[in-house]
Every structure is written in C-alpha cells, then in structure tokens.
Amino acid sequence: AWMAEHVLKHPDSRGLGIDFWDLDPAPVRRGHAVLWEKSARERLAPHAGKVELFKGDSKEVLTSHAEEWRERFDIVYIDGDHHYAGAMTDSVLSWPMAKPGAVVVWDDAKMGAGRTHDRKPGVQEALADFLKEYAGQYDFIVRPGLRQVWVRKTS
C-alpha cells in the first residue's frame, strides 16, 4: 500500500503484484499465505484502479501477459523466487512491462550464495548479471549493497 500511496501518485499510474499465496504446497506456509493474501488485498483495496494483484507463478503470469502489459507499469517490485534462475526470469520478463521512467525495485537484493537455504546463487548474483546486461537502460536510485536495489528505467 505504501508504494500505491507514495509512488503511484499520478491518476494514470499503475502497479502490479503477483504472488503464489496459498498455492504453496507446504501446509504451514499455505496457512500463513492465506492471511498474507487477505491482508494484501484489504490494504490495496483503496487502490484497486491502480494496482492489479494476480495469484500464480510469476513466470506463467508474466509470460501470458507479455504483449498486453508492455510498458504499462510505473513501478515493478520484484520479490519472488530467491534462486538465481527465478530472480533472473522475473527480472527479464518484468523489464519490458515497466514504462520508460518507471521505478523497478528488487527486494532481498543481498540474498545470494551462502544466504539461500541451499547455498546456491540467488538474487544478488542474478541482479548483478541483469544490471550488466541492461547497462545504459537505467539510472540508480538506490545502489546495490543494501537490502533493496531501485532503478529508474531510462529506455
């Protein structure tokens, strides 16, 4: 809700949220996820025209809406799979959906090898590779080294 209130200020601004929520196969996480989804939907209800929430796998949702959502969003907040492949996929699929001038945020940007539960490369390594590949297409707002990385898409 903070992003909707403080970043999506223009009447035509749009944001997107995708989460598994109760699709998680682990019963304990599934139980908590039902509460998280309910809370998210309640907090974002006043912003229903600005923020779209989808339940599902981000790769599937982003792929199925790739053309429809091209350059549609003013903010993209990536906080999904913490492994390299998932973080890179979310980044690559989300990037074309951000308008020029949009803010793109990666959460858990310090979640890298040695910090993921299985010690495999994670968000930190995927983000470093993504930023190298897309160099010249963004300006930093919050640089790597903190929990989150924020960029403004320039092209």
3D architecture notes:
There is one protein chain. The protein has 155 residues and is of the alpha/beta class. The protein is 34% helix and 23% strand. The protein has five helices and six strands, in the order H-E-H-E-H-E-H-E-H-E-E. It has helices at residues 2-6, 27-44, 58-64, 84-94, 123-133, and strands at residues 15-19, 51-55, 73-78, 98-106, 138-142, 149-153. The protein has a four-stranded mixed beta sheet, with helices on one face. Strands 1-2 form a two-stranded parallel ribbon. A hairpin with a 6-residue loop joins strand 5 (138-142) and strand 6. Helix 3 (58-64) packs parallel to helix 4 (84-94). The model has no long low-confidence stretch (mean pLDDT 86).
Determine the number of helices (DSSP H or I, runs of at least 4 residues): 5
List SSEs in N-to-C order: HEHEHEHEHEE
Provide the spatial order of strands within the biggest beta sheet: 3-4-6-5
Shape: globular
Per DSSP, what share of the residues sits in E-state strands of 2 or more residues? 15-25%
For the biggest sheet, the summary is: 4 strands, mixed
Number of strand elements = 6
Rg calculated over all Cα atoms: 15 Å
Mean pLDDT across all amino acids? 86
Distance between the termini: 27 Å
Specify the helix fraction band.
Answer: 25-40%
Name the structural class.
alpha/beta
